# Entry
Amino acid sequence: MLSLVLLAVGAPQAAVGAPQVSCEACIVVEDGAVVWSRAPDAELPNASTTKMTTALLVVRATEPDEIVQVSATAASVGGGGHDLSTGDVYTVDDLLLALLLSSSNEAAAALAEHVGGTQEAFVSRMDRFARRMGLRHTDFANPHGLDAAGHHSSPADLAAIGGALLEVPRLARMVRLPRAAISLPGGGTSTLENRNVLLETYPGAIGVKTGQTLGAGNVLVAAARREGRLVIAVAMRSADAAADAVALLDQAFERPAPEPPEPEPSEEADTVTVPAGEPVGALVFDPAGSVAIVTAEPLAVAGEAMPELRFEPAPQLVLPLVSGDAVGTISATGIDGETVTTRALARGSVPVEDESWFGSAMAGMLGAFARLAEGFTA
# Structure
């Protein structure tokens, strides 16, 4: 399943100085925290960054080698990279590579029809997916991102989608490839070049997706990982989205790494343990004598003080007893009501001093565990 980070968008921060960027709307986040932003909730056409959501839905519903046949409708979309023809047959993962690297609109349409039956039905899934992610500024009209009325997203929403994609290993491996070869329907291969130029020019770059249309301008969702730090930058309607993404990523990496969040105090109770071999009382056989009973295994329960203990003697005890004989069960109940049980063992021996005791004898309990508070470990 997809992991999804909702971004807490706040006012732009300028601890390192505002980056020099051309984007109309942009954001840079590290571990879900906003480093800097400009109009992070602006609803703008988002071009082929749409394909991140398409890919996320496709991987949830398919296997990598699943076969897709391209329909005439999908083949007629046009635009983007790696054109398809009616009747072409590809694997799902080859079409995903065409979708994410060369930004093939026809691959997006073919995959949408394969998963949803129709592109319209698939787009409905995309909108439901956005709502489940809590994305309030994203609506889809198609699976590829060509300009259409009502089709838009925002920098904050795209950063969340990009983060979700990077949590899916099958997709994360693809978007970090500068190029990849896919099999062609007629035989042979085709090499796809990733349109994200940062992959070979920016240290630590690992994705994610480019986009460009007349309405959207230049759009880029970029991500880089350095020394365990994951930073995602989004530039929308940029004069130069790649340059803007570099400035935004630098803005984050030039800051000290954020302090790890303080661990939330645990609401779980402390654990108290009655160790194995701990004497928990005594059995008295009058006139044969008495013997201490101990726990066979540790009893760990929730609490800070001595737990409530209960001894259940075996239905019949046969004398003589020797050390280690089972004489019943010991149960401990924690403050949360949970009970754990182990065998109760004799710690010593009880001989037969009177033939009348040979056979069965009733067991009684002394001490009522009053002395058990000492010796426990927390």
